[in-house]
Write a structure and sequence with these properties.
- The chain is mainly beta and 626 residues long.
- Helix content is 14%, strand content 37%.
- The radius of gyration is 25 Å and the shape is globular.
- 46% of the residues are buried.
Length: 626
């Protein structure tokens, strides 16, 4: 179906291939490019539609926001128009993974304003509450640790959202990531005391000062706190304050035990006076993480070997995440990428590094001359994974456009733009989150949001066969050293072992309680490491039923690595922290703040004492133990 955007159209539904509305005769495509397919929302300032971007080969979904104010009076309409334009301006400046990307802003000849944004396939938290019921305490902590860094980012740039509520936070279906949406009320914070102005926000969730036309960074923190209370209790925040006693009574509506520190954080977020709240999102994050810092002994607890292994209580190590004990030093920082970096890979000899970012750019670096990449290419779609073949004859990438790209090269020293012998490997029906070469370089494996793993012949670019079994997105893969077994993991929280010779599933392990984002395997294929948004790292000795769970991260683990000598494990999390562990004793070695934002990729150099990290802060860093 296609949908007419004319607000006066009596019958806006049209057949998919129509160019003009059969009811009113209006053009159905905005700028001959964006085709609305269904309405998905309407507010006071406009209407929102799910749409298709027909200019791109994959015809991805996007969101069209049409300015269509439901207000009375010239002044109100003018204010609404200003806010719509303000949203476009804000989105253009806000470049962050948890904020939908602005694709276009324009005014049509009939004078209507439109925004086109990235489409986030998921449910908002208001709908999630209605369908699934009250949030657990752990899910509230997860929400805070996901949204607070986003607020820290927008506040750092001088913006205040002003309308944070469950309806404006979307959980993406394929990986559970939380997105902050609807910047129509966002404003620039000023150093001067704000004058009283138009009240903007949702009364249930907005800070008291917003009722007087004022807003501060702490106003967003108040609204986030109210959002948490609504999701935790299932009732309106307005019902959680006792006017007769002049105090919050939200604890009376919480049915499970809540950690005292988390309750204290929530209480401080919702203080009526701005001065009594956290003044920055960073301060709230630090307070939230503080009570999780503890050290516990390692205790071995093996589990029996069933056909499908379940995660029973396992060895646990707690790691503090404040002090750096072994003085890891950042020797070099690459600040070339203009978009958040999602992925890294290192050549087997350690000479070359490949990186991919959210803007669709792939860069290849010679680590002996790291000032600029020696080669680049662009796909115009977010790159989620890159890989270098064992003999460095090929590089591969997987992207948001559902495509795997395989690029062959004959030399590395003379070119600047990697163009020759490009193969676009089409076959996935969703984002491609991971690509990996087999040890002999003859096979490229790819996996993604369509839950399938595809094996490609790297000489011909043809599909060899497809592996089906995962129930959710495939997020990570590793080949065993013999090249005969592929290990995969993903959003269904399982680790799966595939026999590539017989094209069959060998074993499934139910490993983590949330999405598994990362896998690493030792050179001898005896140890496999997994990292998850459940904030844990799991270590498995292959061939045995024993596994250890390493706890200490205060946020989801997005990247893991194991050193070439199999002695050290590294893990990176959404809060920018890198933790290091002894692979034999499972004890903590070190912990340090590597980046201000998520550590999306982490690799050990073959020399072993060098670690390379990449982050959403657009930086790649090289670390060495002093």
């Amino acid at each position: 179906m296609s949908y007419c955007l004319n607000p006066s159209c009596a019958r806006p539904e049209n057949p998919p291939q129509s160019n003009f509305c059969r009811s009113c005769g209006g053009r159905l495509r905005l700028r001959d490019r964006y085709l609305a397919v269904e309405p998905i929302g309407q507010g006071g300032f406009g209407r929102t539609f799910k749409a298709i971007d027909e200019d791109k080969p994959s015809k991805p979904f996007c969101v069209i926001k049409q300015f269509f104010p439901q207000v009375e009076g010239t002044n109100a309409a003018q204010k609404a128009a200003e806010l719509f334009t303000q949203e476009a301006s804000a989105l253009e400046q806000l470049d962050y993974p948890n904020i939908p990307e602005l694709l276009a802003y324009f005014i049509t000849p009939d004078g209507r304003q439109y925004l086109v944004q990235e489409f986030i396939d998921g449910q908002n938290l208001k709908t999630e509450l209605e369908l699934q019921g009250k949030f657990s305490v752990d899910r509230i902590r997860e929400l805070l640790l996901a949204i607070l860094p986003t607020l820290a980012y927008i506040h750092h740039l001088g913006f205040i959202h002003r309308d944070i509520k469950p309806e404006n936070i979307i959980r993406r279906t394929n990986d559970g990531s939380l997105y902050l949406v609807d910047f129509g009320a966002a404003k620039i914070a000023t150093a001067e005391p704000p004058a009283r102005g138009t009240t903007i926000g949702t009364p249930e969730f907005m800070a008291p000062e917003q009722g007087w036309g004022k807003a501060f960074a702490s106003s967003d923190l108040y609204s986030l706190g109210m959002t948490c209370l609504n999701l935790l209790t299932g009732v309106s925040p307005l019902s959680l304050f006792d006017d007769s006693q002049n105090r919050w009574i939200w604890r009376d509506s919480v049915t499970e035990n809540i950690e005292p520190k988390l309750a204290e954080v929530l209480d401080k977020l919702i203080q009526p006076r701005p001065i009594d709240r956290y003044q920055t999102a960073k301060a709230a994050i630090e307070a939230l993480q503080f009570d999780r810092i503890s050290i516990q002994p390692v205790v071995a607890t093996p589990t029996p070997p069933p056909a499908i292994e379940t995660t029973n209580p396992a060895p646990v190590t707690y790691l503090p995440t404040i002090n750096t004990r072994n003085n890891w030093v950042c020797n070099y920082t690459f600040e070339w990428h203009r978009k958040p970096i999602n992925t890294l890979d290192l050549s087997t000899d350690g000479r070359y590094l490949i990186s991919g970012d959210d803007g669709g750019t792939v860069a290849i670096w010679n680590l002996s001359i790291p000032q600029q990449p020696i080669a680049t290419y662009s796909t115009n779609n977010a790159i989620y994974s890159v890989a270098i073949s064992p003999n460095f004859s090929q590089v591969a990438s997987g992207d948001k456009n559902r495509r795997v790209q395989l690029r062959r090269k004959e030399f590395i020293s003379a070119f600047q733009e990697l163009r020759a012998d490009l193969s676009n490997l089409d076959g996935h029906n969703g984002f491609v989150y991971v690509v990996r070469f087999s040890p002999d370089g003859k096979i490229l494996a790819s996996g993604g949001a369509d839950r399938r793993i595809r094996l490609w012949n790297t000489d011909t670019g043809k599909i060899i066969y497809t592996l089906d079994g995962h129930q959710e997105s495939v997020m990570a893969m590793q080949f065993m050293s013999n090249g005969k077994i592929l290990i995969s993991a993903g959003a269904d929280r399982t680790i799966r072992f595939w026999d590539l010779e017989h094209k069959q599933l060998l074993k499934t392990i139910e490993a983590h309680t949330q999405t598994i984002h990362a896998l690493a395997i030792s050179r001898d294929s005896k140890i496999i490491i997994s990292g998850s948004t459940d904030r844990t790292v799991q270590v498995r000795q292959l061939g045995t039923s024993t596994h250890h769970t390493l706890q200490g991260h205060q946020d989801g683990v997005l990247s893991v690595a194991i050193s070439p000598d199999s002695k050290t494990i590294a893990s990176g999390s959404m809060d920018g922290v890198v933790n290091l562990w002894d692979a034999d004793t499972k004890e903590s070695i070190d912990s340090f703040q590597a980046h201000p934002s998520a550590v999306k990729s982490i690799v050990f150099h073959p020399q072993g004492q060098t670690l390379i990290t990449a982050s959403w802060d657009r930086a790649i860093k090289i670390w060495q133990a002093s």
